[in-house]
Write a structure and sequence with these properties.
The chain is of the alpha+beta class. The chain has helices at about 15, 25-35, 40-50, 150-160, 180-185, 200-210, 215-220; strands at about 55-60, 75-80, 85-90, 100-115, 120-130, 135-145, 170, 175-180. Helix content is about 30%, strand content about 25%. The protein is elongated and about 90 Å long.
């Protein structure tokens, strides 16, 4: 049998078979699927907002500490024409903290808000997208003016987030996080529940209250405001 070239592509046109024609058949469909564009959601979002709001500044952040909607001085109203899509999750409440077992919290997947802070107005767009092995949240802050007011707002949000608000810092699962439930449990504590020798208990209370009332002195002297107490004795005593 004569040796002949067999074209296995669906389109018999030779130019199409090499992928150079208008319709490249199976090769073209496979190449289009296997050669996806590079994905950079942050860049795409920023570029889209700059086109929608020409002349306005756009500041982007994915820092979880910069959750603008959590700041008490920020007034936010959802933009009516933009859909608000949320993911509802259940947050359990510490036992004994209340009559209900937990709360339903709406985590924003996509949303737009009009913001007012200080003397400035903003537009905030919140979007969530896949990143690595999990999800990331991007916040786009649009302001009709320079970036400085937006950066000032983010600085205020970050400073507030770093403070404690009826919370306690706890090192858990490899990083520091705030624990409101632990703070609530501690509020229930009372010295009358501490079983110690009266003289020792009085000395301990004096030491504890003296430490908490001397924060300014520590800072003025440039000394770290921290103190450790170790209680020792027969088995059953717990370190403090």
């Amino acid at each position: 049998m004569d040796e002949t070239f067999v074209n296995v592509w669906f389109d018999q046109d030779s130019a199409t078979a090499t992928g150079k024609g208008k319709d490249s058949g199976f090769y073209g469909e496979w190449s289009k699927q296997a050669s996806a564009k590079h994905s950079n959601p942050l860049l795409i979002g920023a570029e889209a907002l700059r086109e929608l709001y020409p002349g306005q500044s756009v500041v982007v952040t994915t820092d979880y500490n910069l959750n603008i909607l959590n700041h008490p001085d920020v007034v936010a109203i959802p933009v009516e024409k933009t859909p608000l899509i949320t993911n509802t999750v259940f947050i359990p409440i510490a036992r004994g903290a209340g009559a209900i077992p937990g709360l339903l919290v709406d985590l924003i997947q996509f949303g737009a808000f009009r913001l007012a802070w200080d003397k400035y107005d903003y537009l905030l767009f919140v979007v969530q997208f896949p990143s690595g092995m999990g999800m990331a949240t991007a916040r786009y802050l649009v302001h009709d003016g320079p970036e400085d007011p937006s950066r000032r707002l983010l600085t205020a949000v970050g400073a507030w987030a770093n403070q404690l608000h009826e919370e306690i810092w706890v090192f858990n699962e490899g990083y520091w996080q705030k624990d409101h439930d632990l703070w609530l449990d501690i509020q229930k504590g009372d010295w009358k529940d501490v079983i110690l020798n009266d003289a020792f208990k009085k000395a301990l209370k004096k030491d504890v209250y003296g430490f908490f009332s001397s924060e300014k002195i520590y800072k003025d002297l440039g000394i770290g405001w921290k103190r450790g107490l170790i209680m020792f004795g027969p088995p059953g005593k717990s370190p403090l």
